[in-house]
Amino acid sequence: MADRNELYIGGKWVPSAGEGTIDVLEAATGQLMARVPAGTESDVDDAVAAARAAFGEWSQSPLADRITVLRRIADGLVARETELAEMMAREVGTPIARSRTVQVGLGVTIFRSMADILETTSLEERRGNSLILKVGVGVVGAITPWNYPLYQLAAKVAPAIAAGCTSVVKPSSVAPLAAFVVAEIAEEAGLPPGVLNIVTGAGGRVGERLAGHPDVDLVSLTGSTSAGARVGQVAAADIKKVTLELGGKSAFIVAPDADVDAAVTAAVRGCYVNNGQTCAATTRLLVPIGDLEQVEAKLVELVGGQSVGDPLDEAIDIGPMASREQQQTVLDMLSDVPADAVFLVGGPGEVTGLDERLQAGFFVRPTVVSRVDNTSAIARDEVFGPVLTVLTYSDIDEAIDIANDSDYGLSGGVFAADDAAAIAIARRLRTGQVSINGGRFNAMAPFGGMKKSGIGRELGPDGLDEYFEKISLQLPA
């Protein structure tokens, strides 16, 4: 793919103030696929200035104009679906079919959904003698992750556009390329100059400056819990708003009365999506102790049957990790499991059967670690790879205690004999969302976490509300 030599600032493609570049590597081969600018603090300052200059007019723009541009961006993404899906399969390692439906498809859905929501959103409400206004929060600093480069950009930029805000986006250096495509599409869609700006660069430099910039009104970050803590600390100096979508170690509870085979099938689907590189992945499987052997046998069948290889191959189930660093992180964690744990499938060894072209890729074997307790690191720490940990419980109260015994609270799953039984269990979980009997992700529902999984919500009307401030006009009568 072609190198990106310029940043997108104020509606123009401009060179960075610095001379450095960042290598973007193909996850499956370890080979260089493109270079992007290593932006500087000066680039951030220019981008924020452009966003601030554009905010006054854009914040007063007719809702119909915002709706139109959101839908045009969605259409533009659809037109470039093949390019984008291949790009993110190569950057992130997402198997190509998932890259089309999730990496690209969810991005399209978010832009369209924000247009739909805006059509039915009232920005004024009369309450007694008060007229309450919803107004755009201002300039948004959006810091996006490498695991879902387009979807997470959409989850921040689409509501910002809808609310009348302007944005400066710092994409991950591991997978930055989709952000440039979005800028091209937005420009073609008629988004005014300065409403969207893209600055690539190191988090410790570009991200730090963006989070602490005095003219940024809201910082929205998706990333690790440590990154979220740092952004919160930097942003606090100016008392600016933050939304943080951070890590997870989510539990999937198989209830005592559940259909075990159906439950395990749903649990595997929830764990291994995007090669396990998903903050909301249900990576702790909690099963009744009496069902353990049946569960283990089903896991060996399902996970052991997954194919690993080139994510551009339609037949592949599991691709590589997005980076060598992430590959090593996962392998190190697998090498440090308790001595009495059982590897049902996979483990820290090398993936076999890869052709020569893939030998330097960032692959990890799909793994199931069973018979561990909730005090072990593999059960408590976010792995962010294709690893499922199996724990047992004696009764449902213990299962709920184990599920809630976590620093995180982002996601979860419950599989029971019927929906009512599963919902009764889910009501007792301290987490932001719960899949009920295999219920699928809903892009219109609020997404976010409790505890160290974050602050605020993304997606749907709740996500849009994060980008508004409210003004009360106290009328004479």
UniProtKB/TrEMBL annotation:
One of its GO terms (molecular function) is aldehyde dehydrogenase (NAD+) activity. Residues 13-469 form the Aldehyde dehydrogenase domain. It catalyses: an aldehyde + NAD(+) + H2O = a carboxylate + NADH + 2 H(+). It is an enzyme of class 1 (oxidoreductase). It comes from the Bacteria. The active site is at residue 245. Keywords: Oxidoreductase. PROSITE patterns: ALDEHYDE_DEHYDR_CYS (PS00070), ALDEHYDE_DEHYDR_GLU (PS00687). InterPro entries: Ald_DH/histidinol_DH, Ald_DH_C, Ald_DH_CS_CYS, Ald_DH_CS_GLU, Ald_DH_N, Aldehyde_DH_dom. Its EC number is 1.2.1.3. Belongs to the aldehyde dehydrogenase family. This is aldehyde dehydrogenase (NAD(+)). It comes from Williamsia limnetica.
